[in-house]
């Protein structure tokens, strides 16, 4: 029977789908030094939550496929995998709608301060102190800049269309399948809009690209929303911009050093913070788990993965 290795805290549905078809071994973390000689000899496939360093691949000499739980796979050394002829898969599409929905909710929470308003009610302050203060910001008349226009970015933009806002975007090159205004640089986009929605992956090119210069370009009515990777935002610059009223607010679902959130961000009433929950519904996580399992089943039973990443050597 084919032996699979589940790495770290794997969604229980993955385990349920694979049990019976495969022999299942488990590894608590992605540490190569924890691989036993038995694992090294028998494991030919893995499932993990964005954690597959080159050292772990090397510790599993019979490995054929790495099934990643998540659309982002920056924690998988795909170049090393490709050099070894390993298949890498991810879980695109099935979480796009959930992340897009969450983005709209986070944007509204940031602009209208709904979490603060609910806490105000729950604390009895509506009765004691009167009406909750008017929100200083609104979605009405806003100009939205999308930093990233991939699958999820397009779903976010489609939802924003219903609000009657103007939408623009910046990516490395313009897309011919969208009608929104394109800007050739992030700074030009930030200068032209008052709301910046970040939905780019973690790559060397996106490292802290949202910094003091971009926040200053966004301006005093500006709002930053980040549902991509914490890696993209210079958190120190963001705190400084909020303290100096360089921008008007921010909504963040992702952070540089999760689950650690900078203390400086917790003090602002005009900041909405979520613990990386954009895709975190039972339905969506089950769909992601099913796609992880389907990739492994399809590879070992039919010789081809369902959703290989572009860097994979598979040419089906």
Report what the structure shows:
- With 316 residues, the protein is of the alpha/beta class.
- It has two domains: 3-92 and 283-302, NAD(P)-binding Rossmann-like Domain (Rossmann fold), CATH 3.40.50; 96-273, 3-Layer(aba) Sandwich (Rossmann fold).
- Helix content is 35%, strand content 16%.
- It has helices at residues 12-18, 37-42, 54-58, 78-83, 96-112, 114-122, 125-129, 151-161, 186-192, 212-218, 235-243, 282-302, and strands spanning 3-7, 23-27, 43-48, 65-68, 87-89, 143-147, 166-170, 181-182, 195-198, 223-226, 249-252, 271-273.
- The strands form two sheets. It has a seven-stranded parallel sheet with strand order 8-7-6-9-10-11-12, with helices on both faces. Strands 2-1-3-4-5 form a five-stranded parallel sheet.
- Strand 6 (143-147), helix 8 (151-161) and strand 7 form a beta-alpha-beta unit.
- Helix 9 runs parallel beside helix 10.
- The two termini are 25 Å apart.
């Amino acid at each position: 029977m084919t032996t699979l290795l589940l790495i770290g805290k794997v969604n229980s549905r993955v385990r349920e789908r694979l049990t019976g078809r495969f022999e299942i071994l488990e590894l608590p973390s992605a540490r190569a030094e924890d691989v036993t000689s038995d694992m090294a000899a028998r494991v030919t496939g893995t499932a993990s939550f964005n954690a597959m360093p080159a050292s772990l691949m090397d510790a599993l000499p019979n490995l054929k496929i790495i099934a990643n739980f998540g659309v982002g796979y920056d924690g998988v050394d795909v170049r090393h995998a490709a050099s070894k002829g390993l298949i890498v898969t991810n879980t695109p599409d099935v979480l796009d709608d959930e992340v897009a929905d969450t983005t709209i909710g986070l944007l509204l929470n940031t602009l209208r301060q709904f979490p603060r308003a609910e806490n105000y009610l729950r604390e009895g302050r509506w009765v004691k102190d009167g009406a909750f203060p008017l929100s200083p910001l609104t979605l009405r008349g806003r100009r939205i800049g999308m930093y990233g226009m991939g699958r999820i970015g397009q779903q976010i933009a489609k939802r924003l269309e219903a609000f009657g806002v103007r939408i623009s975007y910046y990516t490395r090159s313009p897309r011919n399948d969208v009608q929104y205004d394109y800007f050739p640089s992030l700074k030009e986009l930030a200068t032209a809009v008052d709301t910046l929605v970040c939905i780019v992956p973690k790559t060397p090119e996106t490292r802290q690209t949202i910094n003091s210069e971009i926040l200053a370009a966004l301006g005093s009515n500006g709002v930053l929303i980040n549902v991509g990777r914490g890696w993209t935002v210079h958190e120190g610059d963001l705190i400084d911009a909020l303290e100096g009223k360089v921008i008007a607010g921010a909504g963040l679902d992702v952070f540089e050093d999760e689950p650690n959130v900078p203390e400086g961000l917790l003090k602002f009433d005009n900041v909405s913070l979520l613990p990386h929950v954009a895709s975190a519904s039972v339905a969506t996580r089950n769909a992601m788990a099913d796609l992880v399992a389907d990739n492994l089943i399809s590879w070992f039973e039919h010789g081809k993965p369902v959703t290989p990443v572009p860097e994979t050597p598979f040419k089906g």
